[in-house]
Design brief:
Blueprint lengths: L5 H14 L7 H14 L6 E5 L5 H9 L2 E6 L2 H10 L4 E4 L11 E7 L8 H10 L1 E12 L4 H8 L11 H6 L7 H10 L2 E9 L6 H4 L4 H13 L6 E8 L1
Parallel strand pairs: 1-2, 1-4, 2-3, 4-5
Antiparallel strand pairs: 5-7, 6-7
Helix pairs in contact: 2-3
Length: 241
């Protein structure tokens, strides 16, 4: 590996993000928990790959559902924590672009991954080649057309719905998808979009909603399934063609 290689720089970037991670703070946990419920309707088989588990909120659900679970994570701090909490799970520290699986998977989970990587279509193309026959990719990302982002544009807090806000920048996001661009990347990667949708109507920022009760939050998660175009989170369930 030469000094000019981007791999050490990317690993260092991921370690910096992990050192001050917000992925499991406040309503972010509620969002991932609900996402797990949605994905559970579609995931299948015994062998699962989760890419980018971070603090492992989704992992806890996957570890109960899949006898054979592999996690690929780029941040060393996250990997160490995941190995301790899930000793029966295979944890691999690797950039997604460098990962080479030893087996094929029935289900691949991409929870809030595509907005982080430099080349999402390339990653999706690789993930599609890692699917066993009949396997599925379950992917979720933030939605540019979320109600709270549209309000931010009207309030001149954001220039456009696709602009990166301070939270996006803190998390290391490189883009904000909308339903059309998300599906377009899957199709460009040669994958078939089987199902698409959304969850969580989010009229305000997380900190403004943190005091809401669990029942209210769940109701707003469910409302997003009725109006996915303006939901805070959107998802795709895809398979190889």
């Amino acid at each position: 590996m030469t000094a000019a290689s981007p791999v050490p720089q990317e690993r260092a970037r991921l370690d910096r993000i992990a050192a001050d991670s917000w992925y499991s703070q406040g309503l972010n946990t509620s969002s991932v928990e609900y996402c797990a419920e949605v994905f559970a309707r579609f995931w299948k088989g015994r062998r699962c790959l989760e890419m980018g588990p971070a603090e492992g909120v989704m992992t806890a659900h996957l570890a109960r559902a899949f006898p054979d679970l592999t996690l690929v994570e780029g941040a060393e701090a996250f990997c160490a924590d995941l190995r301790q909490r899930f000793p029966a799970v295979t944890v691999v520290r690797s950039l997604f672009e460098d990962f080479v699986p030893a087996e094929l998977y029935d289900t691949i989970i991409l929870g809030h991954v595509l907005e982080h990587v430099e080349n999402p279509v390339d990653l999706l193309r690789k993930a599609g080649s890692w699917l066993a026959d009949g396997g599925v990719i379950c992917c979720a990302v933030p939605n540019a057309r979320s109600l709270h982002r549209q309000a931010a544009v009207l309030l001149q807090i954001l220039d456009t719905e696709h602009s990166l806000n301070p939270t996006d920048l803190h998390h290391g996001h490189r883009r904000v998808y909308d339903p059309e661009t998300l599906c377009a990347d899957f199709r460009a990667a040669g994958l078939s979009v089987r199902f698409r949708g959304g969850y969580w109507i989010k009229p305000l920022s997380n900190c403004q909603m943190d005091a809401w009760g669990k029942e209210i939050i769940r109701a707003f998660m469910q409302l997003g399934e009725r109006t996915p175009d303006i939901a805070a989170e959107i998802y795709v369930i895809a398979s190889a063609r």
